[in-house]
Amino acid sequence: MRRLMSSAAVAVILFAAGGVSAAASGHLQVKPKPAAVAAQAGSKGATFATVTTQLPRAVRPTHYDLSFTPDADKMAFTASVKIAIEVVEPTATVTLQAADLAFSKAEIAGVGAAKVKVDDEAQTASFTFAKTLPKGKYVLALDYTGKIYTQAAGLFALDYETESGKKRAIYTQFENSDARRFIPSWDEPFYKATYSVEATIPTGQMALGNMPIASAKDLGNGKTLVKFATSPKMSTYLLFFGLGEFDRASVKAAGADVGVVTKKGDTPKAQFALKAAADILPWYNDYFGTPYPLPVLDNIAAPGRSQFFSAMENWGAIFYFEYALLLDPKISTESDKQTVFTTVAHEMAHQWFGDLVTMAWWDDLWLNEGFASWMEGRATEHFHPEWNANLNAVGGREYAMGLDALSTTHPVVQHVTTVEQASQAFDGITYQKGEAVIRMLESYVGHDAWRDGVRAYMKKHAHGNTVSDDLWSSVEGAAKKPITAIAHDFTLQPGVPLITVDAATCAAGKTTLTLTQGEFSKDMPGKKPLLWRVPVTVRAIGGGEAKTLVTGGKGSVTVDGCGPVVVNAGQNGYFRTQYGAERFGGIVQSFAKLPAIDQLGVMSDAWSMGLAGYQPATDFLDLAKATPADADPQVFSKIAGVYSSIDNYYEGMPTERAAFRKLAVAKLRPLLARVGWTARSGEPDSTAILRGELIGTLGGLGDPEVVAEATRRFNADKTDPSAIPGPLRKTILSVVARHADAATWDAIHAQALAEKTPLIRAQLFSLLASAEDEALARKALELALTPEPGETMSSTMISRVAGAHPDMTFDWAVANKDKVNEKVDSTSRTRFIPGLGAGSSNPAMAEKIKAWADGRSGGRFAQGSRQGRRLGAEPRQDP
């Protein structure tokens, strides 16, 4: 699943406030039996007898035979399912997971009918028979009805505008625990089974599933019965169904039918994604050493939004919201193009890491998400080296460290007991820290050894379930180099190591560094640091490179050359570096000589260390001054981003903000003058992206020249087609919308109402929510609660308003919490409203969020302090 990066602020504020209890939404809170505790450190796998489950262990499924009829008009469906089960312990009751389902029949042939008991709070259905079922194989037959939802959970509908009127399509979204809203099942990743699915659909519409359609029969009366081929063994959360007026385009690649599916007329906008998927598939086949096992791989674009995700890796039928897959020349940017590629690469990596080999329980979710995040970077580096994708890894690592340096962080591998805790596990620690740890370990053992270990892992565990130690075991076997202890340090305990350069001495043309390992923290000064085994690479500027492993809190390394030395050269390590004033000054003086990735890494450390009080915050400004004119555009993007952050810190301090804006505009305006408002033939994609970021940043800083030029282009757009080039449309309109008066807001609103292309329509409604004017922001909030923007667009508008008005939006959402929750998918509800306050500079906001959470959960937080979650017995305090 591609989690939305926009949830970063949500995660930060929730971590800072202590998290939100799983009890908050009233969903499943059944604790596993002691025997069901998930495999922890040292385990070499998970078995049916030991893996965490919220169901009795007496019965397990092997096959589902599902037949259903959706009624999109009535927003409901009828269904029957025959589940082949194996009773492994005698029992009279079969209990499985079900939510919002009503049962009319439950029986086992030869045994008889069952009494049905539904537990709404636990999200289970129990079927009790008159006699105990002995060990053996049976078929449980169920007839039931269910709901079609308006948000992306279970079977859901998306409405969209077209030139011929409003249309409706339906899709499924089951991760992490919503298959139970569509099919009564053992809705947990360990319970893999095969699936045979048939659906009665309106004739003329296209049905989509994990497998190709095996047969289609016209039933008359405008109905057609479609039957899909039987799937391989897979987890429930990967099951998929889609239905609507679609178009499909496809190519053959590596023996599979690779396709894109869109609403009618939009396949041209998916051609870039189609080519990307066709290119990536054979490369992944080779990298993983296991061919993609399904005959079809569809990439399915749907209008709409979710606060939780942008794409989902259903096996053979990957779902994307349109903005994550389609490129429209009227509005798409170079950044959008790169995002489409990385999203496709991410979800396709899941076809192996997650779908073919699946984590045993949500504790090891990072095995899916961290690896897919890492693999998307590797694929991008391979197919588009001109994008310098390795620089993106620094930003991802920074995001993770921002969360991991708080006292309320959690380990990469964390024990999950409830549905809400599983939903909350989709965060920057799981994704970005997981990715960073993999990047570090791959660098430590070597690219080839890492790949060989992954191939062995895939071969051994195909169609099965694993825990993290299964991966470490495979890599160690291939690399002949121990990594498990290092991996445990970084995945089984939380936090960010801090490597301090205590001394640097030069003799005989070599520099020797003395290093100390501490812990970087934003909110625990004086805390006794945890210990990590930290792989460290150093490079002397103008000299050589050397590696060491810091253990027991101490280390040293000698490198050729006597110039300033960069610690964490290449930026593969997951740690912060503290140099001391003199050594840092030497790096500033030689900053122009550093590779771009080290410029980004040193800048990122300086900014974060400055904010946390480890060194002067002005050190970042010194690096910005030392940045050469020919630096990589992504380095300038970092500077622009930090200037925006500093500007936000001056909220409520007009005099100080004005002084800082003068400095920032003076630095950034010449950069914009150099790249210009008009793209040049043959310019790098990174320059085009920088252009948009500079315009957006300067517009946000209130630069009168940029605001005036954006407004001029907006007003000229009706008569001058060149006034707003497609790649700059979102940026220019964002600047205009941010500074909009009532007349401009109304003009954008009129455009949104008239627009028939869902991708553009959604963008326009989002812009309505970005006004700095508080009256217009309130107007956008009220509009978000109406049907006008579309059911799945409303939460995006509310979040956008919160970006500029967090205190007002949070208070408004609390006052309208029931209406707001209707506009948010169930997976996001526990964190959506508290996350609206994330951008607040008001110290009282954290207490307001905590009070909100306490009022809903009785004070029981899902994210406890890390000292309170130690579960292991190893000396280094692994959880």
Plain-language structure description:
This protein is α+β, with helices and mostly antiparallel strands and 879 residues long. The chain has 26 helices and 30 strands. The chain has an 8-stranded mixed β-sheet, with no helix packed on it. A 6-stranded mixed β-sheet has the order 1-20-21-19-18-17. It has a 4-stranded antiparallel β-sheet with strand order 10-11-16-13, with no helix packed on it. Helix 3 packs across helix 4, helix 14 (633-649) runs antiparallel to helix 15 (654-675) and helix 21 (774-784) packs antiparallel against helix 22 (794-804). The protein is globular. 54% of the residues are buried. Residues 6-43 and 858-879 have low confidence and may be disordered.
